[in-house]
Specification:
The complex is a heterodimer. By secondary structure, chain A is an alpha+beta fold. Chain A folds into two domains: 2-76, no CATH class; 80-113 and 126-170, Immunoglobulin-like. Chain A has helices spanning 2-27, 57-76; strands spanning 42-46, 50-54, 83-87, 98-104, 128-136, 139-140, 144-150, 155-159, 166-167. In chain A, the strands form four sheets. In chain A, strands 4-5-7 form a three-stranded antiparallel beta sheet, with no helix packed on it. A two-stranded antiparallel sheet of chain A has the order 1-2. Chain A is extended. Chain B is built from one helix and ten strands, in the order αββββββββββ. Helix content of chain B is 20%, strand content 45%. In chain B, a hairpin with a 2-residue loop joins β7 (73-81) and β8. Classes of the chains: A alpha+beta, B alpha+beta. The A-B interface holds A 94, 96-99, 101, 103, 133, 135-140, 142-143, 168, 170, 173-183, 185-186, 188-192, 194-200 and B 33, 35-36, 39-43, 45, 47-56, 58, 60-61, 71, 76, 78-90, 102-105.
Chain lengths: 201, 105
């Protein structure tokens, strides 16, 4: 999400830069006819090593802005984060009964033995597997599961258009049981937004 | 000598039994409706006053559910049909493995 925000912010900056340049041209603050003729252009010097001199001050400022936009996008790009992108729409009569979660698969791993000198000279490439679980009360399958092997920085796409939930023969809600009220000081997030316990640090 | 070996074997069996009991899921149980029997497909969640809400689990076709990695404390066990809360009860978890069944009418 932060990466998307950076892209949107950069897009706005780009439009402001182009629009601002056009307005300045229209108002006569910048004149293309005089560009390049004057020696009093724009000079940029970085650490006494790079020196850029241009007779087009507006163009120079535009390039500086463009560099800032590109750098902002580059540095906001997620490095090790894994992205799961859900595509398509799953087939179900009542989307309100659907809950889901993504959990790491704990029993996947790679065994190894030490060398005779007690070291481990061989690099390992363990698989990291997560499972996407989608549950719909009163529907089958319960739940729908899909395991994915993930790598750092990878975007994994999951097509939901092939996922179909069908009603079980007895698909109405069971009657409500005992519901103990929560104390006023307990503010738990809704069950659909639960991300796990957060013990106080 | 034989009696020492016998005592050691007994101690080892007891120790193994204790370790085995601790490897079970911390909180597990079954969602059972008096009128329907086991209820699968429900979303079950734990709420702790400080830790917040656990990652939910789903009851299986036989109504069974279980939570792993639960710190000791007092929890509220909730069962949902989609967004609808069907049950909330209090459970005091002090460690080990604890069975908590969710009764529904």
């Amino acid at each position: 999400m932060p990466f998307n925000i950076a892209i949107y912010a950069s897009l706005v900056c780009a439009f402001v830069m182009i629009g601002g340049g056009m307005i300045l041209l229209a108002k006569g603050v910048i004149q293309l006819s005089s560009a390049g003729k004057s020696d009093e252009g724009l000079t940029i010097e970085v650490l006494d090593k790079f020196k850029i001199k241009t007779g087009y001050p507006a163009l120079g400022l535009f390039i500086i802005g463009l560099c800032c936009v590109v750098l902002a996008i580059y540095f906001s790009k997620p490095g090790d984060a894994v992205s799961l992108v859900f595509e398509g729409k799953l087939k179900i009569d009542d989307p309100n009964v659907v809950t889901g979660k993504v959990v790491p698969v704990a029993d996947v791993g790679r065994a190894f033995t030490l060398d005779t000198d007690g070291g481990l000279g061989t690099p390992m490439h363990p698989d990291l597997v997560v499972e996407v679980q989608i549950n719909a009360a009163g529907y089958v399958p319960e739940p729908w599961r899909k395991q994915l092997t993930i790598e750092k920085g990878q975007t994994v796409r999951i097509d939901l258009s092939n996922v179909k939930f069908t009603k079980k023969p007895q698909s109405t809600s069971p009657p409500k049981g005992e519901i103990v009220p929560l104390p006023a000081n307990v503010n738990a997030p809704p069950v659909q937004e639960a991300t796990g316990f957060k013990p106080p640090s | 000598m034989n009696s020492r070996v016998f005592v050691l074997v007994i101690v080892a069996v007891i120790a193994c039994g204790g370790m085995r009991a601790q490897t079970g899921p911390p909180i597990y149980g079954q969602v059972i409706s008096q009128s329907r029997g086991p209820v699968g497909g429900l979303t079950v969640s734990l709420v702790h006053p400080t830790f917040g809400r656990s990652t939910p689990v789903f009851s299986q076709a036989n109504g069974a559910y279980f939570f792993s990695n639960v710190p000791p404390g007092q929890y509220y066990v909730e069962a949902y049909w989609g967004n609808t809360l069907l049950y909330r009860g209090v459970v005091n978890y002090i460690g080990g493995s604890l069975a908590v069944n969710i009764p529904l009418p």
